[in-house]
């Protein structure tokens, strides 16, 4: 990860961390089922802790 390793991750960094295409992450978010994200200006940003929490929830639900 680039600078996002210490703070907010870009959409591209979050998708790479999850092993998803950027388009798939956009689709999951559009459906309201993706990890918590933040709108910073015109960009969507993610925190690693929120992504990890979402992963734990998704794994526990299955």
Give the secondary structure arrangement, pairings included.
Elements lengths: L7 E2 L1 H8 L3 H9 L7 E3 L2 E5 H14 L1
Antiparallel strand pairs: 1-3, 2-3
Q: What are its keywords?
A:
single chain, 62 residues, alpha+beta, three-stranded antiparallel beta sheet
Give a brief outline of the structure:
The protein is an alpha+beta fold.
| Chain-averaged pLDDT | 89
Strand content: 15-25%
How would a crystallographer describe the biggest sheet? 3 strands, antiparallel
Unreliable runs: none
SSE order, one letter for each helix or strand: EHHEEH
Helix % is 40-55%
Shape: globular
Placed side by side, the strands forming the largest sheet appear as: 1-3-2
| Number of strand segments | 3
Which class best fits the helix and strand makeup?
alpha+beta
Q: Tally the helices: what do you get?
A: 3
Distance between the termini: 28 Å
- Rg, rounded, reads 11 Å
